[in-house]
């Protein structure tokens, strides 16, 4: 049998060199009608199940997470989350879920916010209450190498704190704070 420039020899039992064949319909320009030609079983299986990646890409593009980041892996992370959501939605539909993907995503977002969400902060500047030493008779030492925090006295950044009070203080503010 000749197809294009390739010659295919069909042997006994409808097989080409041990490959199982099936019949499929293709349009013949010569005969101006559809004719049956042999097709390997693997090609039929591929054609039957192809399109899954195209469907996945289409479903992802409908509600893609549109956030950008400075790191190269950020889009990969968002893509992986999108793939997980679309696959979960497809599984849910197989088990009888009737709503569309947007409702499914909203349900996930609501569940995550109710479990892990926090109340939004109240607008306005917060002022820390001034803390005084726990005991005036205790021994107070300056500890260096701490995380940078605001000095309790002058409000400038410092990496020192009082060991007893756990209050961030500069050297010059240390005595002033403990004597007041």
Automatic annotation (TrEMBL):
InterPro entries: PGBD (IPR029526). This is PiggyBac transposable element-derived protein domain-containing protein. It holds the Pfam family DDE_Tnp_1_7. Residues 27-89 form the PiggyBac transposable element-derived protein domain.
């Amino acid at each position: 049998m000749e197809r294009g420039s390739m010659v295919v020899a069909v042997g006994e039992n409808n097989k080409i060199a041990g490959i199982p064949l099936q019949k499929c319909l293709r349009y013949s320009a010569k005969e101006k009608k559809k004719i049956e030609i042999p097709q390997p079983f693997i090609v039929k299986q591929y054609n039957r199940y192809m399109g899954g990646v195209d469907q996945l890409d289409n479903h992802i593009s409908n509600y893609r997470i549109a956030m950008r980041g400075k790191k190269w892996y950020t889009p990969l992370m968002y893509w992986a989350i999108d793939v997980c959501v679309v696959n979960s939605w497809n599984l849910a539909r197989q088990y009888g879920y009737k709503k569309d993907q947007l409702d499914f995503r909203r349900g996930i977002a609501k569940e995550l916010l109710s479990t892990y969400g926090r109340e939004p902060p109240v607008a306005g500047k917060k002022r820390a209450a001034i803390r005084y030493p726990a005991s005036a008779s205790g021994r107070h030492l300056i500890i260096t190498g701490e995380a940078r925090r605001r000095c309790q006295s002058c409000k400038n950044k410092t990496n020192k704190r009082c060991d007893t009070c756990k209050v961030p203080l500069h050297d010059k503010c240390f005595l002033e704070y403990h004597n007041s």
